[in-house]
Design a protein that fits this description.
mainly alpha
């Protein structure tokens, strides 16, 4: 496997993960009440707990995305020159 293939792999991983994060954020913003009602059928969560869980989840997802996708991509861009 060449450096170029690895670089493209991490770039597409980053793009796909960023798209999922944006989708999650937009869904949470525009359909948050509906999501809370749906989850409320299974779990007893207040609106504040629900918001905290999703905000924390998005932050964790973003940190993982940066660590496992962006950093290797940048490292491969530096090495590949």
């Amino acid at each position: 496997m060449t450096i170029d293939i690895m670089r493209r792999f991490f770039m597409w991983c980053l793009v796909i993960n960023a798209g999922l994060l944006i989708w999650w954020f937009l869904f949470f913003i525009f359909a948050g009440d509906w999501m809370h009602r749906m989850h409320g059928k299974w779990f007893k969560l207040s609106k504040e707990q629900f918001n905290t869980i999703h905000y924390t989840g998005m932050a964790f997802y973003k940190i993982c995305m940066l660590i496992f996708n962006l950093v290797p991509y940048i490292a491969l861009c530096i090495i590949g020159k």
